[in-house]
Amino acid sequence: MGCGAGAILLHLARGAAIAVGTDINPRAGAFLVLNARLNGFDNVEFRCGDLFAPVAGERFDLLVSQPPFMPTPPAASPAVFRDGGARGDGLWRKVVAGAPDHLTEGGVAVIVGEIGGGISGHLSQAGGEPRDGCQSLCLIGQPVSAEEYAIRASIGALKHGYARYRGDVRMLLRHLRACGLDLLAPLVLTIRRTAQAGGWTLRSDKDVWEDFDLDHALRHIDARLALEESASTTSFVAAADLAAATLIRYRSVGAGDGRDESAHLHLPRGALRRGLEMPLAEWDALEALGGGIELRHEGDWRPVDAAGRGEPGAAVAGAMTRLFEAGLLVVQERAPLAPAPAAVSAGQGGD
């Protein structure tokens, strides 16, 4: 949605039976059709119109959109590809609100944008909070100040001279401050249509636009649901995906006896975080499990073959929690918890 000349759509079309691109700009559609022909795609279709109007009543397995999301001062020169309304969330809110109704069961939407001001309230207004029939994960990257944002966003004005650029920076900065947008951060919102609802927000230390992986996002949603269920009705088995992680051990200055040694994992592309740090004792406890890191969660973490390896202890529980927060746990199976045995109270009887 908002396909432009079709770079993302053509990439996704490689694995699709049919790929539909929509845009309000008919010129963008002409370039999409041309690019599809030049690259040999016969499964690509363009429809011109505003937001969901061209696909009214239809559902898709995957919906991807990066609507215009820049905060726009009232006096700024209009630019359809850029302007997202006063706070930058005008079109983004409409896409988020309408996406679930255009997804098949199990279908996924990935919506790119920015967020500023009060994050929780902004998400609620935008529809990013959980709703019936949907699961969502909002991954928020590192924020920048309003000053830095205005300097970056106005860079295109330099072609008209420094005086124009300086004026645009000042105008945008005044506007951001008037809207209460002192910090702005990139975000990627993943929505999956399913009967079991849930919604979570996660802050990341990485560039979520440049290094987003849908599999990791969905994996984190599955782990979140499994953890919530395991508190009451369900147990699950999870494995840690660390095949591409790089381990770095280091000791804090003045540690002496090594008690402050840490393990730092440099995580692979697509993970929800750039890196992960844990006490070395936690990492050693994971390694001691042997045969891969695979545990069952039944209110707390236990080895899958508990009879053979004993209890994992607090170190393993702490490490698994950290791996979960980085999106590195793969839920492999779920099972209902066995009912607790009924308590029997025997009284003393008399003759």
TrEMBL record:
Alphabetized UniProt keyword annotations: Methyltransferase, S-adenosyl-L-methionine, Transferase
Single GO MF descriptor: S-adenosylmethionine-dependent methyltransferase activity
Annotated GO biological process: methylation
Any one annotated GO CC term: eRF1 methyltransferase complex
Domain Methyltransferase small: 1-114
Keyword field contains Methyltransferase: yes
Protein name: Methyltransferase domain-containing protein
Species: Alteraurantiacibacter aquimixticola
